[in-house]
Design a protein that fits this description.
Layout: H1 12-24, E1 35-41, H2 46-59, E2 63-68, H3 72-81, E3 86-89, H4 95-98, E4 111-126, E5 134-135, H5 137-144, H6 154-159, E6 171-175, H7 180-192, E7 211-213, H8 215-225, E8 229-234, E9 242-243, E10 245-248, E11 251-253, H9 257-265, E12 268-269, E13 280-281, E14 295-303, H10 311-323, H11 325-335, H12 342-353
Length: 356
């Protein structure tokens, strides 16, 4: 089997059926559906969620969906507590979270977890006169630990021949809330520059230097409103700011959906998890310059079986639409994300089709 082979070929016929249904009915249209569905979580996939909800509700006039982009950590917490029917998260559930009781799920059942949004994380900056910036993981780690404090530091200058860098203080902006984007960013630094970034990947930014901001929008606003600022955010939110190239192998690479998709395609699922759990271990240390390893894989997390059976048809229809080729195309247009491969889309659809 392929690198995704850990997931059993469950409900393959159901997966094909689900994909055909969504392809034939724009927005996963089903006139029999009605009710309210609430989700919360990742602010990175906020634009994609807006586009999915708009399309789905147009096709399903009796369904009302809300999504609060409160951040990945907040979304997972709300889902575990039973406050929302699904969570969007830029990092998968950890072992401690999986050991908890999920209030909205039927007793003794576990959640499903499927990827729905793949996007590069952009290193965004605001430095007057600097329109092209190259950075490697070591320099990034030193900036975000406060070891490099000026834009004309010799380490940055060495990576940017021909660019005039100002004698200007650096303000590094990080997320102040629990963030899957932070976990992906810190995982990248730890895997690629372990001598300079010794902290393990974490949803909460581990350093005390720089400036904290709430949510993706908060980081973007802080970088835009500052001078000499640098931060990290989903690429879909980087418009109007400088976006750095990161070093991959012996080249500097700009963030692209294709580069993000290539990394995920060569990554493996996390071992030892339930067959309904498609959590990925990303190969951050790739040296292939066609890849962009500073990437986030965002997930939809829901119940394999809901305590309230009336919720299941709504989740199956909405999340089934999200992971379908049609839903993925809508997100790519709205947010510039990388669509799931046909293989991964089918695997996700099979898991969602089994929800009850």
């Amino acid at each position: 089997m392929t690198r995704f082979g850990r997931v059993a070929a469950i409900a393959s016929a159901a997966a094909v059926s689900a994909l055909l249904l969504t392809a034939c009915a724009g927005g996963g249209g089903n006139s029999d559906l009605s009710g309210d569905l609430a989700g919360a979580g990742s602010s990175a996939q906020g634009s994609a969620q807006e586009s999915w909800i708009a399309a789905f509700q147009t096709a399903n006039a009796n369904v009302n969906i809300t999504y609060d982009p409160a951040g990945s950590g907040a979304g997972r917490e709300q889902f575990i507590a039973g406050g929302v029917a699904f969570a969007g998260s830029d990092s998968y559930l950890n072992d401690e979270e999986l050991a908890k009781t999920f209030a909205g799920c039927a007793p003794s059942t576990k959640p499903f977890e499927v990827p729905d949004y793949i996007s590069p994380i952009a290193v965004i900056y605001n430095v007057d006169g600097v329109t092209n910036l190259n950075l490697d993981a070591s320099v990034l780690a030193k900036i975000f630990t406060g070891k490099i404090t000026k834009w004309n530091d010799a380490a940055i200058v060495a990576l940017n021949s021909g660019t005039t860098l100002p004698d200007l203080a650096i303000t590094a902006v990080h997320r102040s809330d629990k963030s899957g984007t932070t976990k992906n960013f810190t995982d990248y630094l730890n895997k690629v520059a372990p001598k300079d970034w010794t902290e393990a990947a974490a949803d909460v930014f581990p350093g005390k230097t720089g400036e904290g901001a709430q949510g993706t929008s908060g980081v973007v606003s802080a970088v835009k409103g500052g001078k000499g600022t640098i931060g990290y955010a989903d690429f879909s939110k980087a418009a109007g700011l400088g976006v750095a190239n990161i070093k991959v192998g012996d080249k500097f690479v700009a963030p692209t959906a294709a580069g993000a998709s290539a990394v995920v395609a060569e990554s493996t699922v996390v071992e030892g998890r339930d067959s309904a759990d498609l959590a990925f271990k990303i190969n951050r240390a790739t040296t292939d310059p066609t890849h962009y390893p500073l990437v986030l894989v965002s997930y939809i997390i829901g119940c394999q079986e809901y305590a309230d059976a009336a919720v299941a048809p709504l989740v199956k229809a909405y999340v089934g639409y999200i992971v379908s080729p049609e839903g993925q195309a809508v997100a790519a247009k709205a947010a510039g994300s990388a669509p799931l491969t046909a293989e991964l889309s089918a695997k996700a659809a099979a898991i969602v089709a089994a929800v009850k």
